[in-house]
Amino acid sequence: MFVISVISFAIQDGLGDPLRQMVGQSVSDAEREQLREDLGLNDPVIVQYARFAANAVQGDLANSYFYGEPTLDVIMDHLPATLELVIAASLMIVCLSIPIGVYAAIRPRAWLSKFFMGVSTVGISIPVFLTAIVLIQLFSIGVTVDWFPADTGWGTWLNDLLSTDGGMPSYGRGQDLTHLFGTWDSNFFSWDGLLHLMLPAVSLASIMLPLFIRLIRAEMMEVLQSDYIRYAQAKGISPWRINFLHALKNTMLPVITVGGVQIGIMVAYTILTETVFQWPGVGLMFLEAITRSDIPLIVAYLMVVGLIFVITNTVVDLVYGLVNPTVKLTGKKA
Amino acid sequence: MKRLLTAFVSCVALAGAPMAGSAAEANKELKIAYDADPVTLDIHEQLSGGMLQLSHMTFDPLIRWTKDLTFEPRLAKSWERIDDNTMRFHLREGVKFHSGNTLSSEDVKFTFDRLKKSQDFKAIFQPFSDLKIIDDTTFDLVTKKPYPLLLNAATYIFPMDKKFYSGKDDQGRDKDMISKQVDTFASRHESGTGPFIVTSRQQGVKVEFKRFDDYWDKDSPGNVGHITLTPIKENNTRVSALLSGGVDFIAPVPPTDLERIKRDPNTDLVTMSGTRIILFEMNQKRVEAFKDKRVRQAFAYAINQEGIAAKIMKGFATPAAQLSPEGYQGHVDGLKPRYDIAKAKELMKEAGYEDGFTITMMAPNNRYVNDDKIAQAVAAMLARINVKVDLKTLPKAQYWPEFDNRAADMMMIGWHADTEDSANFYEFLTMCPNADTGAGQYNAGNYCNPELDKLVEQANVETDRAKRAQMLQKVEQGLYDDAAFIPLHWQDLAWASKKNVEIEPILNVMNFPYIGDLVVK
């Protein structure tokens, strides 16, 4: 955390002058200088850092220039939106990648597996903002196709088949939010909220989903080759039980490790998704903080995201111990 | 902490039963998407387009601009000149604030004094010495010297509720405090006389408004009862939101999507030639050659403004040969872009720079529409007169410090006159830089012509409109002849809405949509 804070502080010189964003065009130099002095921007970086660090250890990460309130409050305001997006995307990934991955491993030669693999290769190579734009065009704006002659029955049918109505909300979280606690308003409890969540979550999931399908498939195929599976098959245990109880359990070990790291990365990926969908989460907030050179907010964001990484990795390590008893945590008696 | 602002809805409800008439019919929903939401509710905290748009929704000015750049009465129902330095205003009677208080001259005085304290606004009110209260609905605006732009400045006076903004807030700070750093009372609460009341606000997420039942202007055709304003920064998303029917009204419309919106049968597009000039300044302090008028002229001849407007801006800009757009007093009709490569080469030869030279150039890459592409085009055009350009484009947050340091030989700037008047251009962009008076603060070319400066100063105390226009046009012509800078174009403005939202009548070149008067079918 210390390292993150130093690095984020060091880059602030490259971010430009926050003052321009705060004052009008005809404000005189002298007044600008005064404001700069008030904000402490004229002190050497070391002094600024010392002041920041002294406050930070007491849990105070300074005030955002733009919002005029503590940066942690600002982040807490925006974090629930991002977490919901990540949760929704993760759910999609888990629910889809495991069955598809397992199926592709058990029946590697089936047409359906080949289709899934093909799609996932395409999916992995399309950048997330493109996915998002395509989704918006298809499901929010709608597409009318008239490639086929409309006077024939089959032409009309094909045109209708390929045209979409649109109508899905393409931006923001909608009006119908359910208040849970504190700053947390949830999208999960109303139809309108879920609709708003749908497109952003799909586009966010689209980057990780193919990765997980391929990962699960590869691991599963390897596990299926191992001796104990052959032994189980020889013993005549039902294939269902072998595949989903014995094999899947071992398949999931590396998947959990990768998954933990990927969830952290996904929080970072939300920057793109949130920008395209105007999803009011921390990613969008961070991007705007950069264009405004809101340095305290940038530093605080990096620290919080760093913290999320540390926590998810720790949790993954702990979970790993539960799933695989052969991994013992140090300090625990064997 | 939730950034929700529960406005004093109850206060308003107590303020009396709503009148019958237009207010009762105003029940239409309107969803707006701008590229940014208001940074604060305190209309004196920052002078920016976004803040003025908010001011016109929640407050009302004394007078306001019409479409053809004349004035129309709002809270001031009439005004007359008493002497060279004084203008008398008569307020409308019985105008209510959102809090239920009644507007009086006291409130205007309070607002005027607050404007003089505001960092961003005080420059506009610098020529004023006092606001004298005559009686409850009459007051005099007094200037230090005869001031021709008195009415222009009066469009910036949006009376604030003195009673509402007096006293201390729960943190012990004065309620009328203006600050960019701390959260003030005024940045969270509003009480104006405008058509809309802020009912909730979440910074960066949305602002919600409802129509003020006791709004004074019963003749307003406006029928919008509830507004949700969402900031959508990403151009593509904003356009998609309109096309998919998620919002009713968007601004600005990116030039790349103009065609797409025009093609869509359910949306209307409105464009106007704007008033923001984009130009390059040539730094005479850094480059010896720029001191030679012929070199500057050669540069001006080498740039194809019409080409840039057509190709890069996709026709979404008006090619410029001067600072003042049409409708401004300083605008000279005869000045046209003077693209002529042969002439440019000849002038370079005359000045002894036939083989050209190398210069540095800087431009922002996210401040103006297509700014970096314009800079590249200009650099390429200059190559044709053998000037080698070393171009660097930067994000705006990094560009302005460089601009202040005059870090390159040619720098791009866009300027909109806060006073909607030509003199403002000259004061900031072409007058001899003077740190004491603040003149030429953005004159990165270091161009200096004392004769023209004197004319500007004279124009600034000339209250006769015709004479003043003549002076300003003389300045404009002088700058053109001197090739003091390279003008490129005025950025056009564009708005788009669903077909049933009649935005055309409420739009203007200042880009303050008068949403109070908006009719939704």
UniProtKB/TrEMBL annotation, chain B:
Which residues does UniProt assign to the signal peptide?
1-23
Q: What start-end ranges are recorded for coiled-coil regions in this protein?
A: none
> Its domain of life?
Bacteria
**Locate the Solute-binding protein family domain: which residues?**
71-434
Q: Which UniProt keywords apply?
A: Peptide transport, Protein transport, Signal, Transport
Q: Which Pfam families match?
A: SBP_bac_5
Record bears the keyword Protein transport? yes
Q: SUPFAM superfamilies annotated for this entry?
A: Periplasmic binding protein-like II
PANTHER family, A to Z: OLIGOPEPTIDE-BINDING PROTEIN APPA, PERIPLASMIC BINDING COMPONENT OF ABC TRANSPORTER
Homology family = Belongs to the bacterial solute-binding protein 5 family.
Q: What is this protein called?
A: ABC transporter substrate-binding protein
Organism, by scientific name, is Marinobacter halodurans
